[in-house]
Amino acid sequence: MRLLILTLFIGIPLIEIYLFIQVGGLIGTWPTIALVILTAFIGTAMLRQQGMTTMARAQAEIREDRLPVRELFNGFCLLVGGLMLLTPGFLTDALGFALLLAPLRAVLGRGIWKLFQRSGNVHFSVYGGNPGTAGPRGADGGPVIDGEEFGVAREDGPPDPDTPRLGDRS
Predict the structure, then answer these.
(1) Region for residue 150 given its phi and psi (left: phi exceeds 0; alpha: psi -120 to 50; beta: otherwise)
(2) Could you give the CA distance from residue 73 to residue 50 in angstroms, rounded to a whole number?
């Protein structure tokens, strides 16, 4: 993993420098700089529009008591794509624009989901409640989230037994 990260941190800037030299040789220095700035503006506008759409869909999913997994993944891809578009360079711009394409994000999401399923380390379950909802309802009508509680370890020793825990009613 370290080797991959090191390769990316060295390889991507080298590729970007090479592409700057090649494009600059073809169209000139100032048009190359203008092109990099233009892609940042276009990417920012596309990111804003798609980000708002994704946010609206996520809010609709939450209102319907469904986990907005697809929208969260899309939002993450948009964030990474936006960061790539703001990074000067042609390779990062191409990757950033690719992440703004919804069909590519869908294919990427399906591939990552299949990797999760094959790993066997990820388990999801939904139970109780009304069909189509995220789970049982609490007294206030909100969803009930079931989990395990662990004490919070202090830097100087084990958990403090007098520290209130989540779920304790005072």
Answers:
(1) beta
(2) 13
The predicted pLDDT at position 155 comes to 58
What region, left, alpha or beta, does residue 157 occupy, with left being phi > 0 and alpha being psi -120 to 50 degrees? left
Which of residues 163 and 97 earns the better pLDDT score?
97
Q: What is the DSSP letter of 45?
A: H
Three-state DSSP at 35 gives helix
Residue where the block lists tokens 């600059």: 24
User: Among the listed ranges 25-39, 100-114, 144-158, which one has the minimum average pLDDT value?
Assistant: 144-158
The pLDDT tens digits of the residues spanning 15-35 come to 999 999 999 999 999 999 999
> Tokens representing 39?
């892609």
What would the two tokens of residue 7 be? 């390769």
State whether residue 92 is helix, strand or coil.
helix
Long-range contacts of 164-168, Cβ-Cβ distance < 8 Å, separation of 24 or more:
none
